[in-house]
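Structure ticket #2291
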Amino acid sequence: MNSQQSFDLVVIGTGVAAGTVISQVGSAGWKIAIVDERPFGGTCQLRGCDPKKILRRGAEIIDAARLLHGRGIAGADTLAIDWPALIKFKREFTDPVPEAREKPWREQGIATFHEHAEFVDERTLSIGDKRVHADRIVLAIGARPMPLPIDGAEHLIHSDDFMELDSLPRRLVFVGGGYISFEFAHIAARAGAEVTLLEMGERPLAQFDPDLVEKLVQRSRAIGIDIRTNAQVEKIEKRADGFTVRAKIYGEACAFEADGVVHGAGRVPATDGLELERGGVRFSKRGIEINEYLQSVSNPAVYAAGDASATDGPPLTPVANLEGSAVGHNLLNGNSKTVDYRGVPSCAFTVPPLASAGLSEAAAQERDIDYDCKLIDMSDWYLARRVGETCAAAKILIGKDKHIVGAHLLGPECEQIINFFGIAIRNDWAVEELAGVVSAYPSAASYVGHLV
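Resolution: structure written out below.
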């Protein structure tokens, strides 16, 4: 092993949280290193949010044409996604990312390592064949697909693999009913695949409002997605011409033929292989155990941000950005900044999208919050009728103090509308303040006032 190098700060990971830390600390004159054994850029830019939305655009166009077929649009029945061309278009965005991400850091004098890192002791890391001492270490390592106790699990493809498929399998089975499965299922179905989704629980998309999820399930079935709940996948068998997925659904044995089987059953903190015990870094199934300042509870030299941190924040890109900002501040100024997770919007980018901000009804009831619930059918609103969509609804929770407790939306452009509710919750706006926002008409934002 080569002689030891020393740094003021070593950041492990190159995604949103890591980039936010570096953007704050990079000009402080510290000697910094950043490490990632995968291509620089992280999940969101390379393997998640950004490429997913490019693929979704194809599904949106197909869906939009079909919804307006006979209403001024002709030829919708012959319109199709050219999957190889769509993947090629996606790569125009993802292929340049690693170099575009790394080059500015190198130009700043930040050392970049493309190797595996693990702890040797509390302030020493082994990075490839190098020994590195760090006064401070930031773990922004993200998440990985959850290991599944399924015979034949090695045949599963992950979300990373799905977005690199040069051709789309004719028959796809998605294991799990979270937002990854639903988003990809909506893309694949619009691209002509036969899609089955197997969810082991009573209902899919557990993090979203159940009433709106049920409407989305009906809409998903209408486009040909076979959604099964209470489905316990037991075995994936490889055959010469594809796969057989064996499951028990409400206790009854079922088999599904597939040309591809996709893991969509959730992700867990990517803590494996870091040898955290040697670094004195306490962790659990939820991730790195940290205090309110995102500092390790057991090793004060270590901070964590993003999907691998055991915080109250959901595993979302905006949360990684918030946590990275707090870590950067606390590294430079001492522990003085915490993260406000209130009202962070989330969205399942299905077609139409499902969005949420604030508390669910269940969470509000657990906290004994007194609220009124408005359940609104938006299917006959201009917002939906203009594009031919029949699946559109909202559930708004308003506290007795006339502040927004939670907002849950399903329908066209709801991924934009939900941001207004997030702003209102994070800034403690009263309902009349949100309703008084003046927006361009007839933009999606102009409907906010009608929802409260």
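Closing remark: Residues 136 and 301 are 5 Å apart (CA to CA).
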